Amino acid sequence: MEIWINPACSKCRGALTLLDAEGADYTVRRYLEDVPSEDELRAVLDRLGLEPWDITRTQEDAAKDLGMKEWARDAATRDRWVRALAEHPRLIQRPIITADDGTAVVARSEEAVRDALSR
């Protein structure tokens, strides 16, 4: 199990606290320092069963500067979204846990963290 975190994020710290309390075996990826490639993002999106716009923090300054709220959300623009996430990792919703069964969850709630632990 791997968890993508921003240490400054309270949701990330909460997820780590819960993982530790449950004795989970996991690795931490500080994705702002160890930025995922476009291919890694596509793989995580596949595991999540989501599209890039589903995990984009559109309220971030970079998203506003890029005008992402106005971008189409379709197959033709998917690569544009993925590229923006790779170039601006602060836009990636967090935390993301990749579960041992090959799936992943955006673990913003205790229930989502527990879901990842049960997989």
Automatic annotation (TrEMBL):
Q: Which organism is it from?
A: Streptomyces macrolidinus
> Does this UniProt record's set of keywords contain Oxidoreductase?
yes
The similarity comment for this entry is: Belongs to the ArsC family.
Instruction: Output the PANTHER family linked to this UniProt entry.
Output: ARSENATE REDUCTASE
Q: Which UniProt keywords apply?
A: Oxidoreductase
> Has UniProt tagged this entry with the keyword rRNA processing?
no
InterPro entries from the xrefs?
Arsenate_reductase (IPR006659), Arsenate_reductase-like (IPR006660), Thioredoxin-like_sf (IPR036249)
Protein known as = Arsenate reductase family protein
